[in-house]
Specification:
With 269 residues, the protein is mostly beta strands. It has strands at residues 5-11, 17-24, 32-37, 41-42, 51-53, 59-61, 75-93, 96-115, 121-135, 138-153, 157-161, 164-172, 175-184, 187-193, 196-210, 228-239, 242-253, 256-268.
Amino acid sequence: MHVPRKLVAVGLGAGLGLCSLDAHADGPSGLVATETVPGGVVALPGITDLVGCSRQGARTRAPVVGRKRNKKKDGWVSRPYVRPLAGVSVWGGSGRQTTSIATAGAEAGVIYRQVGRPVPRWRVNPRVRGQLSSTSGGIAGFHARAGVQAGPWWKHLGLSFGPDVYRDQLLIDRVTLDPVTGMAIPVMGHGRFGPFGLQAGVEPSWFLSGDRPGVDWRNTDAVGFGDEFAYIAGASARVQQMVLGVRWTRRITAMGEGTDWSFNAGFRL
């Protein structure tokens, strides 16, 4: 098919524009179109370009419409992080005086996020954490754990759950929380609103080995289940590549109850 075409754009004076288009298309459709439009845009059948005139008579080309945006392919993206921790634990109950303990440690892990599909999208967070507790007399205990949290996320809300295997020991007021190996299952609800985040949940745990007694729930006013139980709440704020957070934990054990305030600063790698 042979398509000759002639396009003349003429601008007359400031503030007056004239576009004259004379086009002839020889083809199966036999289309012929000739149009003169003041200061407008002309599109011809069989011609894909849109050509117009400005009021100064300059020849312009309109952008091509209907181009599809590139969408993210289905898959996963990952973000490793390191999160130093520092805080204080206050223990009391079972007829004992309140005792304050300093804590310090760190958490490291990777957050995997699902992309390129409708919500809910899943997030998976394998991680390890270690923490030491100390008093004026020296090291009072430790807590180490490793596990995976996973769950669905919508636009602003999410849910996570999964097993953590831990090992810990604590000595307070001459009372030892004997070393045990246990399994905890945190169940957390999350909210993300711009740079701010909220979380709250519960964490029952069961002992796998060790001589520490579990909580007798029939003889306590606390609400929970398992060998030990914890209530958790926290908040965070994202500042560029760093996340600042605070976390409150209420832990119920057979030897008493402890309240832990932990402050952290997470760094994305």
